[in-house]
Design brief:
Largest sheet of chain A: 7 strands, mixed
Structural class of chain B: mainly alpha
Number of helices of chain B: 9
Strand order of the largest sheet of chain A: 1-2-6-3-7-5-4
Helix content of chain B: 55-70%
Structural class of chain A: alpha+beta
CATH architecture of the largest domain in chain B: Orthogonal Bundle
Helix content of chain A: 55-70%
Order of helices and strands of chain A: HHHHHHEHHEEHEEHEHHEH
Strand content of chain B: under 5%
CATH class of the largest domain in chain B: Mainly Alpha
Number of helices of chain A: 13
Radius of gyration of chain B: 19 Å
Shape of chain B: elongated
Radius of gyration of chain A: 48 Å
Number of strands of chain B: 0
Number of domains of chain B: 2
Oligomer: heterodimer
CATH topology of the largest domain in chain B: Rna Polymerase Sigma Factor, Chain: A
CATH superfamily of the largest domain in chain B: RNA polymerase sigma factor, region 2, helix turn helix motif
Strand content of chain A: 5-15%
Distance between the termini of chain B: 43 Å
Order of helices and strands of chain B: HHHHHHHHH
Shape of chain A: elongated
Distance between the termini of chain A: 62 Å
Chain lengths: 462, 193
């Protein structure tokens, strides 16, 4: 007699998935139990009948479509993945940045920051932003150091040129005009008496010179869209050439007195001397000054380097004038005068001269002597001008004092903190409303879904 | 290539031999498709699932480890695809699509019978399809893998991620359930049930 049916084991027995021991047990049970034997027969029958369910045949194009899809996806993975990734980063970043920008602008406008800033500093916001323009701070002027090492050949230092300079610069024209005129004056001072305005070839350089040959131009990256520097290359200056070099640096400094001292020290350290200087204070107590220094010609570049690091460079220009021709002319004239002088002197020294003859010769000798002295002086002056370059430093303290700027900085920081606190408060206040809105929205969506579902079911029934 | 085991063919494909995919398709296109069809009950969807299964084989070819049987791996992929599709269908059933709306489309019957119709033209076949489709998913799957794909219990347990005991129970219940569902149609089966 058997104790219980083994129907659950029959499936495994039928499928041949039992162990040998289990199978023997089942077989022994089946010999004694008719019910389980019948069940096994039914299961066998069922299994046989299941084969009557035939699946439809697969499309013949299945293989080719799989392979085509593999190729398509491979291409897509290679080309689109990058795009998707980029978009996945760019879109949220752009949205976030836009929101932040709008919030900041909104807060700034609401707090009336531009007006308050103007009250604190006494200047408009535009001007303050100018002061903070990177590339114009004392340290950042280093970026612009190379641009005074530029010279290019023009026939005249034209005013039109300078006008276009101002327009390229895009800042207040009068400011730069003044600098340009000054610079023109300096150049002309050294072009000298008879050669003034008619010297054959003048070497002049401008920081913002517009009409340069394309090959010589290098355009630097504009810093905050305020400065465009075009850098022409230096012309070759051969040994023995007589070239007068001049440089003008205009600086905005924080402390005028300190700048004056520093510029004087630089002049001394470079082996130069101070040709002229002026120092003054305006009505608002801002210090300014002009230093004209003579620097040995081999230290010219170093001088400009060091001087421009003293403050925020507003303008820097160099000029050079080739006086070789003038020098040769003077020398030739001097030689000719000396020949005449020597001849007259020789004639005067002859014994057979009569007294009237001697007096006549002496009277002829005097103007020749004056001319010789004059020429010698001119040559000496040229030598001096060539061996020592002239560097002029114009400086003035900034229109907005450092203290005011610091105050405005603090004000901006305070405003930003206040705005941040305000926005947090706003979010905290708006949160319950937002949650309520979201809940209402969800309820509305669910309601619409249910109504639509019921409507469709109803229409189906109909 | 034809003499190689499935696992070796897959290894060749892993190494970049493109012709190995042809061999895999030749060997498994019908088993995978039939398995999907019997699970889902729709020829077009089954074809989609079968295609996707081969695409997954390609996509995850580097993840294949030759320790396991290839048949188990590909049926496991098919199982996952079918399961996710059924879940999606279940979700969409709550929200009927526009094209499912009654009266929105005029029913158009093709004059030519579809492959599905041809396969189900046999009354017994359609009864079996209906009854097997009405079984719970896991029971149905275990039954199909055993009866139609001829896999052993160990392979089924790997595909379904169930223990051997659970597979045994699933099969037993599937057969009992099916037997109960087929009783009303006993007359249709010539040999009886």
């Amino acid at each position: 007699m058997f104790r219980r049916h083994i129907k659950e084991e029959l499936s495994g027995y039928l499928d041949g998935q039992l162990t040998q021991q289990q199978r023997k047990k089942v077989e022994a049970h089946l010999k004694e139990c008719d019910a389980c034997a019948k069940e096994l027969e039914r299961l066998k029958m069922l299994s046989a009948q299941l084969n009557m369910w035939k699946a439809p045949a697969l499309d013949e194009s299945f293989d080719s479509s799989v392979k085509a899809e593999i190729v398509r996806r491979e291409l897509e993975r290679g080309q689109v993945k990058m795009k998707k990734r980029t978009l996945a980063i760019m879109i949220p970043s752009g949205v976030l940045a836009g929101i932040l920008l709008l919030v900041c602008l909104n807060v700034a406008v609401k707090r009336g920051m531009p007006d308050k800033l103007a009250q604190v500093t006494g200047v408009t916001t535009d001007e303050i932003s100018d002061q903070y323009t990177p590339g114009f701070t004392t340290k950042a002027t280093r970026h612009y150091e190379p641009y005074y090492r530029q010279e290019y050949i023009t026939t005249t230092a034209s005013t039109a040129n300078q006008k276009s300079v101002s327009s390229i610069n895009g800042r207040k024209d009068d400011k730069y005009y003044a600098v340009s005129n000054e610079q023109c004056k300096v150049s002309q001072d050294y072009s000298g008496g008879s050669s003034r305005g008619s010297s054959g070839q003048a070497f002049t350089s401008k920081v913002y010179a517009p009409a340069l040959p394309a090959a010589q131009e290098k355009v630097c990256e504009p810093a905050q869209g305020t400065v465009i520097v075009i850098q022409p290359s230096l012309p070759a200056t051969g040994v023995g050439e007589y070239i007068i070099r001049t440089g003008v640096v205009k600086l905005e400094v924080e402390d005028g007195k300190e700048t004056y001292g520093a510029a004087s020290r630089i002049c001394q350290e470079l082996g130069g001397y101070m040709a002229a200087s002026s120092f003054y204070e305006d009505k608002e107590g801002r210090q300014a000054g002009t230093l004209t220094m003579r620097i040995p010609k081999d230290k010219f570049t170093a001088a400009l380097d060091r001087l421009s690091a003293l403050g925020k460079v507003e303008n820097i220009s160099t000029g050079s004038q080739d006086v070789s021709q003038e020098y040769s002319n003077l020398k030739a004239k001097l030689d000719a005068e000396m020949i005449v002088y020597n001849k007259v002197l020789e004639a005067l020294q002859k014994r057979q001269n009569t007294i009237p003859e001697a007096m006549r010769l002496e009277s002829e000798l005097t103007p020749i002597l004056r001319q010789v002295e004059y020429l010698k002086n001119r040559i000496e002056a040229l030598n001096n001008a060539v061996s020592f370059t002239t560097v002029t430093v114009n400086f003035h303290e900034s229109a907005v004092s450092v203290k005011a700027l610091k105050d405005s900085k603090h004000f901006i920081q305070d405003s930003m903190v206040a705005a941040g606190i305000k926005s947090v408060k706003f979010v905290a206040a708006a949160l319950p409303v937002a949650i309520l809105g979201a809940v209402l929205l969800i309820i509305a969506v669910i309601t619409v879904m249910v109504i639509r579902f019921l409507f469709i079911r109803l229409s189906k029934r109909e | 290539m034809r003499d190689l085991r499935d696992e070796d063919v897959m290894l060749n494909y892993q190494k970049g031999e493109a012709s190995a995919m042809d061999e895999l398709l030749r060997r498994y296109r019908n088993p995978v498709y039939h398995f999907a069809y019997r699970l889902i009950g729709n020829a077009a969807e089954a074809q989609d699932i079968a295609q996707e299964a081969f695409l997954r084989v390609h996509q995850y070819r580097d993840a294949y480890e030759p320790e396991g049987k290839f048949s188990t791996w590909i049926f496991s992929i098919t199982h996952n695809l079918a399961l996710s599709r059924l879940r999606r269908k279940k979700w969409w059933a709550i929200w009927p699509r526009r094209e499912d709306d009654a009266g929105s489309l005029v029913e158009f019957k093709s004059p030519d019978p579809s492959p599905e119709d041809l396969a189900s033209s046999n009354e017994v076949s359609s009864i079996l399809k209906k009854c097997i489709q009405s079984l719970p998913f896991l029971q149905r799957e275990a039954l199909i893998l055993r009866e139609y794909q001829g896999l052993d219990y160990q392979e089924i347990s790997e595909i379904l991620h169930k223990s051997l005991g659970t597979v045994k129970t699933l099969l037993h219940r599937a057969r009992q359930n099916l037997k109960g569902k087929l009783i009303p149609y006993e007359k249709e089966f010539k040999g009886g049930l």
